[in-house]
Amino acid sequence: MALLRTAYQALESGDLDAAAQMLTENFIANVPGAPGPLIGRDVWLLGVQGMKDAFPDLKINVRDIFGAGDKVTVLVHFEGTHHGAFQQIEATGRQVGFGSIEVYRFEGDRIAEEWVAPDIIGLMQQISPAPAGH
Known about the structure:
29% of the residues lie in helices and 40% in strands. By secondary structure, it is an alpha+beta fold. It has a six-stranded mixed beta sheet. Strand 1 and strand 2 (38-39) form a beta hairpin. The radius of gyration is 15 Å and the shape is globular.
């Protein structure tokens, strides 16, 4: 659990390389919408870099964290300001907040696999343009 908190702190501060070093070489990311598992630190780095580019002031608030065996589950809430394009939506300058349920599997002192379920629909509703006439 301490390693995961350290990884979140590295992400929040923008030290993505330090966070990536906490992953195994063949790290597996299981994310909604992907046709299958995404494998490798580089794929993970692309995803988090996209979030940091869109929300450079991203704050990560761990609401709950617990572990059993080689897995740790986290209820986390993200907050930030939409300062860069995210999934084809240009920066709006809006403050956003969204939750995620995340499960991590460890191999020794490294994170080997993640299953994440971020509330992307809630996030997209916060940054989507208002319908015409509103």
